[in-house]
Specification:
Elements: E1 11-12, E2 15-16, H1 23-56, H2 62-87, H3 91-111, H4 119-137, H5 139-144
Antiparallel strand pairs: 1-2
């Protein structure tokens, strides 16, 4: 267990795992973590789909197809790491999750517009992103992700 100086038992470098949380806050934490794991799972599914497409179909640009697969793999790994850290209530995971949700919001907005608009995908990306951002900005959830010395009250 990685302990930092000045922490007590049960407090790791990532933050306290046994910090008291009440019903609504616990539900919010579970919702955030579940949505992050669902997003990570969706990215893994997209990675597998793109990999199968690369092996089965002939891309117009092999280099672009490989680059897209690599980017999706990096994204899947990063969102998976955020989800695991969120389950452990690591303080850094809150900011990383907000950044990911903002990126997801921009993709959702793009899905609503243009020649190949897909409002169904737009809503599927927009609703979880807004939900996670809203919950992570809620004061009790924000405090649950903070170090004990940073908490108020």
């Amino acid at each position: 267990m990685n302990q930092r100086p000045g922490t007590g038992p049960g407090e790791t470098v990532d933050g306290p795992r046994d910090a008291p949380v009440r019903g609504g806050v616990r539900a919010a934490l579970v919702t955030v973590t579940a949505l992050l794991f669902a997003e990570a799972g969706a990215l893994v599914a997209v990675f597998v789909w793109l990999l199968v497409d690369l092996l089965v179909l002939r891309p117009s640009s092999f280099a672009m197809a490989v680059a897209l697969i690599v980017l999706v793999a990096i994204g899947a790994a990063w969102v998976s790491a955020i989800a695991v850290a969120s389950a452990r209530r690591a303080p850094w995971s809150r900011a990383a999750a907000i950044v990911w949700q903002v990126l997801q919001l921009s993709i959702a907005v793009g899905a609503f517009q243009g020649l190949f608009a897909r409002p169904d995908l737009g809503w599927a990306l927009l609703i979880p992103a807004v939900t996670v951002i809203g919950l992570l900005l809620w004061r009790p959830v924000r405090e649950a992700f903070s170090h004990p010395e940073d908490r108020q009250g």
